[in-house]
Structure formats: C-alpha cells, structure tokens
C-alpha cells in the first residue's frame, strides 16, 4: 500500500493532569462540540494518533486524550513499541493477560468520561479505544454518559491461548451491564478489525457478537492475500496507520463511519 497515514503534532493541545479512581494521568484536550475520549494505542500518542485526534476536532468534537503510557508526540519505532509493551505487561492498572478482569484503568476512564460529559454539549460522550485500549471503550460503556463506544482492533488481554483470544476484555459484571444498556436504552457499539488480525481476534469479536447481538456493529476490513485495499496480512491499526486520505480507501471509509456514528449518538436532534 502506497502513501502514508495522516499525522499531526501537539500544536494547540492543552494538557493538564486528571485524577480519577485513584489514578492520575495527563489529559490533552482540544476542540469544541460534543465530547469524545480518544485512548491511544501502543506505544502512545504518536503522530498518527494525533492525526486521528485532529481529524475529530475538525469534524466538530471536543477531544480528550489521556496519556497513560508512552511519550506524547513521539514517533513510533520498534524499540519504543517493545519497551512500552514490556512496561504494560507488568502493569496492574491494565492486567494485560488476565481474563474476565475488572481493570483499574477502566474506572479511571469512566471518571474521565463523566468529567468531559459535564463540560461539553450533547447528551453524552463517545469513547474510542484502539489496540491495547480497544476493550476499554466497552468497559467505559458501563457508565450511562458513554453513548458512542468505538472498539477499534481490541487486543486485550493479549491473545495467548484460546481462552484469552476469546475474552471480551471486560469483567462479566461490566459486560452484563453493557448488555442491559443495549436492551433498556438502545445503546449501540461499533467495532473494527482487519480480517487477518491475530491481535484483535475473530473469536473475541464472536464473543462480543453473541453477547451484544444487533447492538454491535462490526466493520471488518479485508486483509487477506490479494485484497483490494492493498493491506498486508499484518494490518492492525484501522483508524491510524492504515488510513490513506484517498477517496474510496477502505480504512478511510471506516474512519468516516466512526465520525458518522459519533454524530448519530452525540448530536441531539433538533426540534
């Protein structure tokens, strides 16, 4: 696949620490309009993640990016990524290998979502998680203020063995609460993955489909050999590194659907 993904930098982003559920992380914020919490993928707030964030700002959202790992603005390299993974593997905040886990960072994220919802227009907020943080968008949806959860290539727990590969990345209690919201208040969730992605597994999405039913909209991009989009079988980051701003590009269309989903859920209808 030719070309490069959209990128940006920290220009115009204001940063301040936010404390919730006993945890403190810097949060970067920018924009006006309905609130969206964008949780970075490994290794952190890379130029590609900031490219997505600035696109959401341009589309009329207030975007808040917590920085729980990595160096904001730093480019991704193999060494940087591996060093970040090594730290996260032993972090109790994320429980990278635990199944059925109630992860402390989920409580932090829900507190951040409530704070953003109280300061932005609209009926609630969106939460986008990606890769290592993909499942946290699902965990955040336990809270009623989260109206637009987006799970992009959720890879936690790391899929070592069949049980972890099929784990929904939240505790049974959290999942039951989200399922109840889909039935009682019409909550809908959006999930994205590449067809050959071994990190965001087919079995994990099958688990989520069984639990959430029609409330779970899935976008699966073809990354099999010879696919029309030109993706490698290793393609993973649907909304960042794989996006090309070319009309008709599959990952660009997926990003457009995410923006549409956020608008549907966060923009009150007039009249």
Automatic annotation (TrEMBL):
Record-linked InterPro entries: AB_hydrolase_fold, Dienelactn_hydro
Domain Dienelactone hydrolase: 32-144
GO molecular function: hydrolase activity
UniProt keyword Hydrolase, yes or no: yes
One family name in Pfam for this protein: DLH
SUPFAM superfamilies: alpha/beta-Hydrolases (SSF53474)
Gene3D superfamilies tied to this protein: alpha/beta hydrolase
Source superkingdom: Bacteria
Alphabetically ordered keywords of this record: Hydrolase
Designated name of the protein: Dienelactone hydrolase
Source species: Actinacidiphila paucisporea
Lineage, uppermost ranks: Bacteria, Bacillati, Actinomycetota, Actinomycetes, Kitasatosporales
């Amino acid at each position: 696949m030719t070309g490069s993904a959209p990128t940006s930098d920290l220009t115009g982003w204001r940063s301040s620490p936010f404390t919730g559920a006993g945890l403190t992380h810097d949060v970067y914020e920018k924009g006006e309009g309905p609130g969206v919490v964008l949780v970075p993928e490994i290794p952190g707030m890379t130029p590609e993640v900031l490219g997505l964030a600035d696109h959401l700002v341009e589309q009329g959202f207030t975007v808040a990016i917590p920085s729980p790992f990595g160096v904001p603005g730093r480019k991704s390299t193999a060494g940087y990524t591996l060093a970040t993974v090594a730290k996260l593997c032993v972090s109790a905040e994320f429980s990278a290998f635990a199944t059925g886990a109630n992860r402390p960072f989920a409580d932090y994220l829900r507190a951040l979502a409530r704070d953003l919802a109280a300061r932005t227009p609209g009926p609630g907020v969106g939460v986008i998680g990606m890769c290592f943080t993909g499942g946290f968008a699902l965990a955040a949806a336990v809270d009623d203020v989260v109206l637009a959860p987006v799970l992009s290539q959720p890879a936690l727990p790391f899929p070592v063995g069949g049980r972890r590969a099929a784990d929904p990345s939240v505790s049974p209690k959290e999942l039951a609460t989200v399922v109840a919201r889909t039935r009682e208040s019409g909550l809908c969730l959006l999930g994205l993955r590449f067809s050959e992605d071994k990190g965001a597994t087919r079995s994990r999405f099958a688990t989520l489909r069984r639990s959430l039913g029609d409330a779970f909209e899935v976008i699966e991009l073809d990354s099999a050999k010879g696919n029309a989009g030109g993706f490698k079988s290793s393609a993973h980051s649907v909304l960042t590194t794989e996006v090309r701003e070319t009309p008709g590009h599959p990952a660009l269309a997926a990003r457009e659907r995410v923006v549409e989903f956020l608008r549907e859920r966060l923009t009150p209808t007039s009249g």
